Amino acid sequence: MSSTEKTDVLIIGSGFGGAITAYHLAAGGAKVVILERGPWLSGQDFDHDFELGSSYTRAFDFVVGDGMSVLSGNCVGGGSVVYFATMPRAPRFVFERQGSIGRRMWPAAINRDTLDPWYDRVVEALPVTGQSWDQVPYPGGLWAAACAHAGRTANPVPSAIDLDKCTNCNWMMAGCRFDAKRSLLLNYLPAALAHGATIRPLHEVQHLSRTDDGGYRVHYRVVDDEDYRVLHDAGTIDAKIVIVAAGAGATPVILQRSEATLGKMPSAVGRYFSGNGERLNTAVFDEDRVREVLGLDRGDGVAYEAYQIGRGPTVASWDKLDANLPEYERYSLEQLYFPPGLGTILAQVPDATGPSWFGVEKKELMRHFKSWLTVFTMSEDDNEGVFGPPPETGNAHRFSQQMLGHGPLRYQPTANTWRGWNLSDADVKDIVERDGLAKVMPWTNDLVGAYTVHPLASCRIGDDPATSALDDRHELRGHPGIFVTDGSAVPGALTVNPALTISALAERAVPGIVRAARERGVAVTYGAPAPDGATAGRRAVLQAR
C-alpha cells in the first residue's frame, strides 16, 4: 500500500480563489500543493480554432443542468485563462441586497468600503487599468454610439489587458497566445511557484476525509489528457488546511460527496446558486442604417461589419446600476463578443416565421455574422439554483471526450429573476432597434436552459448559518480548517463581471487562513507584496512545466 503524501496546505483549483491564496501562503513559508482538474496550457498552446482537442475544448467545462447551463474554466489558471478580463468593482448597493431571504445577504463585516482595500491589492497585482475611447474596438464603439443615440450613457470598462500587446484578434476565450490578457498564468501562479508551491494538473479531487490528527485527507483521480471521461490512478494527500476553489459548479459537488466521510455539511452547501442574473441578446445591424443614423464609417465605406474584430467586452451601459431602483430592476448592459460554436448555435433569428434557432432563416442570419452585436445583461436573480445528488465522480456525467457534461444543478427562474431579464431585454430592444438600426432577439433558454459564464453563491459566506455555508472568514461551518475562496463564496449576483470581487474576497480571506494554519502548527506568516510574475516567477512556470 502506498504512503499518503503530506503538505501544509492543499488547494483545490487554480483559478482566482486558488491562485491568490496559494501565492500568499507559499510566500509566507507554508508548503502548498495545488490540484487542478484541467490541463496546463500557456502561450504556444492556445489555438485559434474550434477543433476538438484545441485549447478551446480542452480549457473549458460546459455543464448542462436542469434549467441552467454553466460555462467555466478547466485548466491551470481556471477562469482567468478563458475570461474576457473585464474587471469592474461591484456597485455599493450590491452589498445591501436582501434577495430571496428578505434580509441582508452579505456578512455585516463586508461592504464596499471594507472591500475596497482588497480590490486595490488585486488591481495592483494583475494589474487592472482603464481604457480610453481611442482604444475601444469597433463593436464597443457601435454599442456606445447606439446608446448615445437612444439617450443612454456608456463607458469603457476597466480590464486586465495589456493593450500594447493586444492584437484585437478576439480569440481570448481560447486563451491569449500573446500574453496580453493578464491571466493568473502571468502573476499570482508564477509567483506562488517561485516561492515553492507545486501545481498538479489533471488531478480531479473526488472527496475529503478526516485524518487522526485533526487534518484532512484529499482523495483524487488522475484525468486522461485527451479524454476527460477516463480517470486513471487514485491518490491521497494529507493537509492541515484545505482550500476549496474548484468553482461554483464544482465546489459544492465535492463537499456534498464528502459528507459520507466528513460528516454533515451546512444546509447551504449546494443551495442558493446564482447565475449572476445573466442574459444574452443578439442584434443584427443594418449596415446602411448604421451609416445613415449613427454616421459611422470605418474609412473604407463600411459602416461596421466588425463583430469579430476586437476583444471581449469593452463598453458597458451602467444607467440601471442605480441604488434608488427596486431590487431586481438593476442591471448592466455590456457589449460582448461570443465566438462561433455554442454562440452561433444558440443565436436566435429575429422575427422568425419558423424555428428561431435553426433552418433556412438561421442560415441567412449566419450570412450576416459580421454585422452582429451581442449585448450581455448582468442582473439580480433570486439565488434559485439547487444542486441535486452528486455524480459518482467529478462534477458532471461527461458525455463528450472534452468539455461537455450533464450536471446535478436545478434552476427554475422566479418571477423576480424574470423581471430583471424582461426589463433588460426591453432596454436592449429600445437601444438597438431605434430608427431601424437593428433587429434583436434574446438567446433561447429552450435548449440548455438559462446560461451563465459567472456562476456564484453555491457555498456562500454570511452571518446566518441557516442560509450561508461559510462564516465571514470563508471557513466551512462545522469543519474547521476547510476554507472556500472561489465564486461559490460570493453571496449573490453582482450586476457586473465578478472576477475582481472574487479576487478581492480571496485576498481578504488570506489573513484568517494564515491564523488558522498557525493554530494548526504551520509556520506561516502574512504580508507578501503584490506578486511579480514577470521575473523569477515567470521562469518558475517554464521550469515547472
Helix/strand structural class: alpha/beta
Number of helices: 14
Largest sheet: 7 strands, mixed
Count of DSSP E strands?
19
Please tell me the overall pLDDT. 93
- The percentage helix is 10-25%
What features would you describe in this structure?
This protein is α/β, with parallel strands linked by helices. Helix content is 24%, strand content 19%. It has 14 helices and 19 strands. The strands form 3 sheets. Strands 1, 2, 6, 7, 8, 9 and 19 form a 7-stranded mixed β-sheet that branches. A hairpin with a 5-residue loop joins strand 15 and strand 16 (404-410). The longest helix has 21 residues, at 499-519. Mean pLDDT is 93; it is low at 534-542. Keywords: FAD, Flavoprotein, Oxidoreductase. This is GMC family oxidoreductase. InterPro entries: FAD-dep_OxRdtase, FAD/NAD-bd_sf, GMC_OxRdtase_N, GMC_OxRtase_C. It comes from Micromonospora antibiotica. Residues 452-506 form the Glucose-methanol-choline oxidoreductase C-terminal domain.
